[in-house]
C-alpha cells in the first residue's frame, strides 16, 4: 500500500521531502476526515512504541511509576491556575454532550494533565511520608491547533507526561536536572539526535511554570523542534490544588512540583527529518521495527538453496534477539532494496547463490551503503558491529550538522540574515532573560521571526558587549531560532 | 497510600469485597471528579500493560499489525451503518467545541472504531493484493454509561480492537475461529479464567454485526462478565464504506469484515474477582507486577547479615528475569505479609537469621499459603515450580467454580430460582436463537432478569423437549445468565 515512488531532494525542498516520505514509507495516512488527526500505520506505530519504552525505561530507573489518568478534565480544575488556564484556553477541545444530554459541566480533552494530577495529589499527599510522588503517564494529548503537520503539530499527538511532588524546592530542582540527563541520554545517546538544552527565557515559560527547561533539535530546514521540556512549577499548582502536608513542627507546607514532557511524536519527527536522506528514512537499530532485512537473489534453479540459506541467516539473527524480515516476495531485488531503504531498515543482507555456496552473506549498511562480505558463522556479531557503527555515524552527522548551524550574531540584522540563510541557532548577547528582557525578546521576534530559545542549560556562558536589541549592557548569552 | 485495612468476606458480600479490594490494593482511585472516569494507580497500570501485551503477542503471532487511530470519529462516519448508529447513539460523548469555536461537525469520542477503520480501509483496499487486512489498536474507548464500576463498566475503559478485511466470507469465518482460540489461550490458558464461549442469539448481536461470538466468565456473585467478543460483520460495513476490489473477472466485490474486542478492563475485573480471596488479590506470575516479594526478618544484631542474604536471593531471581521486591521498610513482617498478600503478589520469601545461616529461604505461596524451605542454590527453579503450581491451582478453582454454577433448567421458574440462588448459567432448551426466538428471549429476561447468552460455541449440543418459553419444540440448547 505504500506509495513506492520516492524521488524528492531533501536539501532542495525539505518540506516536500518530509510530507512525501511520511506517506511513502507508510508511516501515516493523513486522509482521515478530521483535520489534524492522523492514522498511524503499523510501521510508525511500532517505532512510536519503541520510543515510548526508551523513555519509560529511563523514567522507571529514576523511580517514576506508571499511572493512567482520565482523558477528560473538568473545567473547574483547569480554572484553578490562572496562567495555565490562560495559556491553554484557546487550545482546548470541549466535550459538551453525552448521548442526547448536555453535560452539566463541560469536560476538556487533556492538553496536558497538571490540573488532573494535582487534584489527586491533594488526596494522596497527607504527610511527608507520602513524598516524593513521581508518576508518569504515556498518553495522547489534544490541542485545537490551526496549522498541523504529522509528528510536529497535531490536534492529537503522543506524549509522556511526568508529574512529581517534593517536600523541598531543592529536590524539585534535582529532578529537573535528572530530566535533562534523561532527555540527553535517550535523544542524543540512544537516538543520535544532537541536542541544544536551554533554560527558556522568563517570557516563554510553560503556562503555570516558574521556569522551563527544554531540548531543541535543529531540523534540516534550519527551524528547531522542541522535543521535550521540563517545568519547575514551584508551588503554582500545589497552592490552588492544596497539595500540602504538615512538617515536623506542625506547619502546613505546600509541595514543589515539576513535570517533564517528552514529546514522543516530536522525537519521531526528528528521527525522520534529521537522519533521513534522499532514499528515505534511516532508523537506528534500537527503534527500527525491522533491524535487518534479508533479500534473497536467485534464478529458478538456485531458488530453493538460496531461500533455505536465507532462512538459516534469519534464524541465526533471531536467536540473538534481532528483528528480521526475509523478503521473499516476487519483486525484483532492486525494487526490494529501494523499498526497505525507504522504510529506514538499518541493515540489509543480500544473499545469492554464490553467498549460499561459500557460506557468506553480504551485509549492507543503510547510512553509508558500505558492503561487507561476512561468514554466516559470525553474522550476529557483524550485525551488532554494523548497527553500532551506523548509530555512531548518524549521531556524528547530527552533531556536525548542529555545529554548522550555530552562528554568532552581533545585531538583529545579522540574526535575520543568518535565519534566512542556514537557519539554526544564532548565539547573541542580550540584556536579560528575566521579565526586564521581554521587550527585547519581542523585538527580536518581530524583526527576525526568530524566538529567543534561552540560555544554554548547564553551561555558564559569559555575555560581553551590548544587548542586540536594546543596546544596554548584555548580561546573558542566548540562542535565537525559528521554531516549529 | 493504600488503605491497609481489609476485612471483608468475599462470599458474604462480593460487591463490598470488590469495591473495597480495588481501593485497598491501590488499583484505582475513584475520587476523580468526573463520574465514571477513574485514575489507575501504578499497581493496576502495570497489570493492565501486561494484559495488553499478552493479547498483543497472540494477535501479532496471528498476523495482526498494530495501528493507532484517532480518538474522535466524525458523526457522518457513525451515521453510515444504521444498526451501529442506533446501537451507539445513546452512548456517545460529543466534542462540540475547539477553543471558543463551535466545531462545524460534532466529533464522537470513539465508542469502538469500525466507522473510523472502514473509512480508511476503503482507501487502502484497491485490489485483491491488498487483502487481507488485519490490524489492531490498543486504546481506551468512551461510552456514556449511567451505572459505572471500575474495570466492569466505565465511561472510559481499556480495550483492544482488531479490524480485519477479507476477500472471502470463509476467510472471515476462519478469523472468528482464530479469535476464539486466542481468547481461550490467553484467558483460560494464560490467566486461569474458566470461560464459556458462546454464539450470541440473533437478538443480541453487536450493532452492525451478523453474528457475535463471545467469552463469558462467571463472577463470584454468579453474574457473568463478557470479557471479549468477536463479530462477524459480513458486508454490513464494507458496503456503506465502499471497502471493495475488483475480482479476476472485473466484478466489484465487497470485503468481509470481522472485529475482535478483548476487553482489557474486564479481564482485570475477572482476575480480581475470580482469583481474589479474603486476604485480597491473587495475581498469576505472568501478570503480577511483583512476582516474588522478599520479607527479611531480623533483630538488631542479625540485621546486616539477613539483609545481605536477602539481596543475594533477590539478585539470584532477578538474574533469571523475575520481578522481585525486597521489602526492607520498617514495618513488622506480619504487616508486610498482609500488605503484599492484599496486593496479590503470588510468592513470598521469608528470610530470617536461621535461613541466612543455613543457606535456605522459606517460600510461601499466595494461593495455598503452603510453605517450603528451599536452598538458595535452587531458588529460581523452586520459584518457577511454585509459580506454575499456583497458576494451575487458580485455573483449577476457576474451572470447578464454573462447573458448579451450571444448572439444567426445564422451566422459566427454575431459571429464576437458580439465578436467585447460585447464579451462573442455566442450561435450557429453546425454540430458536434466530429472530423467531426473540420473543422467547425477551420473556425469559422479563421473568428472570437473565439473558440468553447463546449457544455454546464449538460444541454441538442437541436440544430435547420443549422451549422453556413458548413450549414449542426446542431446537437449540442455550445458557441463561445475569450479566454485568
Structure description:
The structure is a homodimer of 484-residue chains. By secondary structure, chain A is α+β, with helices and mostly antiparallel strands. Chain A has 3 domains: 14-275, BirA Bifunctional Protein, domain 2; 292-389, Rossmann fold, CATH 3.40.50; 406-481, Translation Initiation Factor IF3. In chain A, 35% of the residues lie in helices and 26% in strands. The first copy, chain A, has 14 helices and 23 strands. Chain A has helices at 14-24, 42-61, 75-78, 82-88, 114-124, 169-190, 238-241, 264-275, 303-319, 333-342, 353-358, 379-404, 412-420, 438-448, and strands at 28-29, 39-40, 65-66, 72-74, 93-98, 101-109, 133-142, 156-166, 196-199, 211-218, 224-234, 244-246, 252-254, 256-262, 292-296, 324-326, 347-351, 360-365, 371-375, 406-408, 425-430, 451-456, 476-481. In chain A, α9 links the parallel β15 and β16. The model of chain A has no long low-confidence stretch (mean pLDDT 96). At the A-B interface, β2, α2, β3, β4 and β5 of A face β2, α2, β3, β4 and β5 of B. β5 (93-98) of chain A pairs antiparallel with β5 (93-98) of chain B, so a sheet runs across the interface.
